[in-house]
Amino acid sequence: MIDLVEKLYRNNTLSKEELVQLLTGMESSSRDHLIKKAHATRMHRYGDSVYMRGLIEFTSYCRRNCNYCGIRSENPRAERYRLSLEEILDCCRIGSELGFQTFVLQGGEDNYFTDERIVEILESIKEQYPECAITLSIGEKARESYQKFYDAGASRYLLRHETASRRLYEKMHPGMNLDDRIKCLQDLKKIGFQVGTGFLVGLPGQTVMDYVEDLVFLQELKPHMVGIGPFIPHQHTPMGHEQGGSLTDVVTLLAIIRLLLPDVLLPATTALGSIDPLGREKGLKAGANVVMPNLSPTKVRTKYALYDGKICTGDEAAECRVCIEDRINSAGFTVDMARGDHLDWRGLS
Ligand code: 5AD
Ligand code: FES
Question: Which residues bind S-adenosyl-L-methionine (predicted)?
Fold first, then answer.
């Protein structure tokens, strides 16, 4: 197994068969070696910097009905809210005062936010903070819409593929299909966005072969960012009584992704921090180099409940900012408040 890890470290690729072998044969000594190599690769490419993104969860309305997600349209107990333009700009102001240069606007697929409204938000943020980078994460849209967002100042887009297994994708996402999702990712890339995708780990029925599909998909798409995290049950969803994903599996997959895509921007996610008090730190030590502290107003924090037990729901932005810096430092890394573009983007704007 150590040989396969070495091969992955040297060549930044493995065949499908080798990935199966690596994942099925992983025991703790090979995992430790894998994590060391992922760390070495991250240090070589990005040093000990951890990039900070300010997350603004601006709507909890969603027209989709993902079976795992707490804000699915068929959850009548989900508390719905929308932030006004002023409230969003307020989050940016607070974030900017704390040093953030990247804002991530995330929400459910909410028809209230028409293209025009999104464009207005983007232009307003850009007017006040011309140097900042804006990331959008608002789901599947027509290519023309994505183009309008890009022209209005969004330069990055997050759209997890969730799972590259067709069987599992269809089971988890009523009325959706994987090809539409992939088409969106391709459109975003063609337009020129820095594109983030990613997947859930530990969905009921998810197998090693499914993770291999995810890894092969990432190798083909070559996204700039990859967000992965454990599935965590939400009590008011059809999957509320299922078992969640494991820390070890997420950390192992983070390390493999760092080696498959050495320059990728890889967050240690809130979900990872929610299943283990040191989850994010363990992610950072396995190759992750981004964290996304929450800038949403505290009055709405608990309402953006994708899963149960989400951390930081009671903390003000400034508290999260201090907390995360301490955690990053104690894990042996340094906070970097720069825009934190992908290496291919450095020097461009
Ligand atoms: N557990 C973990 N992650 C979840 N997401 C949605 N629901 C859950 C859950 N129950 C993730 C999805 C989505 C991202 C915003 O949150 O992967 O893309
Ligand atoms: Fe909307 Fe999951 S139900 S993102």
Answer: 162, 181
Distance 306 CA to ligand 2 centre (A): 8
Class assignment of domain 2-339? alpha beta
The per-residue pLDDT for range 32-83, each reduced to its tens digit, is 999 999 999 999 999 999 999 999 999 999 999 999 999 999 999 999 999 9
Question: Ligand 2: residues whose CB is within 6 Å?
Answer: 62, 64-66, 69, 71-72, 108
- Closest ligand to C-alpha of residue 66 is 2
**Percentage of the residues of the chain whose pLDDT score is greater than 70:** 99
The enclosing H or E element of 260 equals: helix 247-260
- In the chain, where the domains are located: 2-339
Residues contributing to the annotated binding site: 62, 66, 69, 137, 162, 181
Stated pTM of the model: 0.97
How much is the ipTM here? 0.95
DSSP H helices, 152-246, are 166-172, 178-191, 208-221
